[in-house]
């Protein structure tokens, strides 16, 4: 899920794992997002797949039993630490012989023209400085009639958590993820691809424990900088006494995947 280093936030997978954990613990849809995305891919034997911004490799280690035996998978991330974690996570559950791990930038991919049947970019294009340049590179490395899967969020995704965070952390109303989101991604994809379809993942969070929510918010670099000492105590008290006054915190999730053809 990462391609652009955001300070120290994505040096390795620790912060991302904290964020994933909240969804694993409290999502109402028991088919997790990575499992759902994988079910959309229609993977077959003897094809070449590229995932850009692979993060800790969750798409693959969570679905290792469903990976075709004879398939060529290349995982790319700008963070060397993420790639190391991805390799380790995959090797814990299955052989990595079908995998290549490449430290690279989506804006300048080190691959030949028309090399891949499928390219995947999950929750990462909004981090790319020049999104159009990144999409042009994806198109370049895709084979004719190849398929590009790009997942992202709606501007309303996790709205309730964002409202809490803004009470204590000075963050912009327009989030980084708004640069390539459900509301505007199709317009950007249309400049490079055809036959674009959006599929939404139906889900929400029913959070019943305060600490995983606190950890989730604190995994953001801005929160780590701001919520220290007495400010952290005030923040933690608010979460425990106000947010969880009824014992349950309901959060809307709005995420989906755009499936585009070259």
Automatic annotation (TrEMBL):
Top-level taxon of the source organism: Bacteria
Protein's name according to its UniProt entry: Transcriptional regulator
InterPro entries (UniProt xref): Methyltranfer_dom (IPR025714), SAM-dependent_MTases_sf (IPR029063)
Pfam families: Methyltransf_31 (PF13847)
Domain Methyltransferase: residue ranges: 44-158
């Amino acid at each position: 899920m990462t391609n652009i280093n955001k300070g120290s936030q994505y040096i390795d997978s620790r912060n991302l794992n904290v964020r994933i954990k909240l969804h694993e613990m409290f999502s109402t849809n028991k088919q997790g997002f990575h499992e759902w995305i994988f079910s959309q891919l229609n993977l077959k034997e003897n094809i070449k797949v590229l995932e850009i911004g692979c993060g800790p490799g969750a798409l693959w280690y969570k679905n290792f039993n469903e990976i075709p035996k004879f398939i060529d998978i290349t995982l790319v991330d700008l963070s060397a630490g993420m790639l190391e974690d991805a390799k380790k996570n995959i090797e814990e559950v299955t052989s990595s012989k079908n995998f290549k791990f490449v430290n690279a930038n989506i804006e300048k991919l080190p691959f030949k023209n028309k090399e891949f049947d499928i390219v995947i970019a999950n929750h990462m294009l909004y981090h790319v400085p020049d999104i159009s340049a990144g999409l042009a590179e994806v198109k370049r490395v895709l084979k004719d009639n190849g398929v590009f899967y790009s997942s992202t969020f709606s501007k309303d995704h996790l709205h309730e958590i964002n409202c809490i965070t803004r009470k204590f952390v000075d963050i912009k109303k327009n989030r980084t993820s708004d640069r390539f989101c459900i509301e505007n991604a199709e317009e950007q994809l249309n400049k490079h691809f055809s036959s674009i379809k959006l599929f939404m993942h139906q889900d929400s969070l029913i959070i019943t424990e305060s600490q995983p929510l606190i950890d989730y918010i604190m995994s953001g670099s801005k929160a780590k900088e701001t919520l220290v000492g007495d400010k952290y105590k005030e923040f933690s008290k608010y979460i425990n006494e106000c947010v969880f006054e009824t014992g349950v915190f309901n959060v809307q999730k709005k995420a989906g995947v755009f499936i585009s053809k070259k």
